[in-house]
């Protein structure tokens, strides 16, 4: 019985490696140099598949992978039925925030009840956030480079991920509101958890013991 773990290249892969190691699993090929999408591990019954970060929940939900690691941002935008989320792995930490140009008075716009144009990849989270605040927004869906939207006049504000703040600074934007902290979670296919419990349960337990506070 083989267990398939879905990861995205970059920070999720890098930050999941120590957790895998704690579970006795070592990925034996480097995704940055290999062109392979299926990577073997030192365990013949465990393999890693490389998918886009936003595709991890889809792979796990439909059984293309038994488990995976996905950001809370990605999970909130995905319809999570069939997905078991047993652990917050506390990796790939950042926050979801509202940012604007420095010369846009966000507080005043909110206070006056103005309609604000907001560009974002995270329309579900943004819609909920502004509805909770009672702020009227026109949401513009983008798939990347959100920082460009206020600079070109496409939008007044963006909802994006912020970590060090250097991307915002480099584009002369300011963080005007924090929406929520973000980290990555382990997601498990519910049917696989039953059928492959002998392999999956010890893995989940090992991950849990290795989570850094
Ligand atoms: N600057 C950051 N610092 C820490 N964690 C981050 C940062 N940016 C994103 N993340 C987290 O890491 C996850 C993966 O980010 P990554 O940049 O690898 O994918 P992506 O480019 O957002 O997704 P996709 O490739 O599907 O468009 C995100 O879903 C988020 O939870
Ligand atoms: O506050 P910062 O530390 O600048 O991080 C924030 C940036 O990180 C993410 O992008 P991306 O995944 O492209 O970031 P990366 O360049 O670190 O990969 C996010 O969409 C922001 O643009």
Q: Output the CATH topology of the largest domain.
A: D-Maltodextrin-Binding Protein, domain 2
Instruction: Kindly state the percentage of residues in helix.
Output: 25-40%
Instruction: Please mark out the parts with pLDDT under 50 across 5 or more consecutive residues, or reply none.
Output: none
Q: If you compute it from the alpha carbons, what radius of gyration comes out, rounded to the nearest whole angstrom? A: 19 Å
The rough form would be described as elongated
In the CATH classification, which architecture of the largest domain applies? Answer: 3-Layer(aba) Sandwich
Number of helices: 9
Give me the strand/helix succession.
Answer: EHEEHEHEHEHEHEHEHH
What integer is the average pLDDT? 97
| CATH class label of the largest domain | Alpha Beta
CATH level-four homologous superfamily name of the largest domain: Periplasmic binding protein-like II
Percent strand: 25-35%
- Tally of domains: 2
The number of distinct β-strands equals: 9
- What structural class do helix, strand and pairing data support? alpha/beta
Bound molecules: adenosine-5'-triphosphate, 1-O-pyrophosphono-5-O-phosphono-alpha-D-ribofuranose
Task: Compute the separation of the termini in Å.
Answer: 33 Å
Largest sheet: 9 strands, mixed
Family: Belongs to the ATP phosphoribosyltransferase family. Short subfamily.
Subcellular location: Cytoplasm
Pfam family, one: HisG
Subunit structure: Heteromultimer composed of HisG and HisZ subunits.
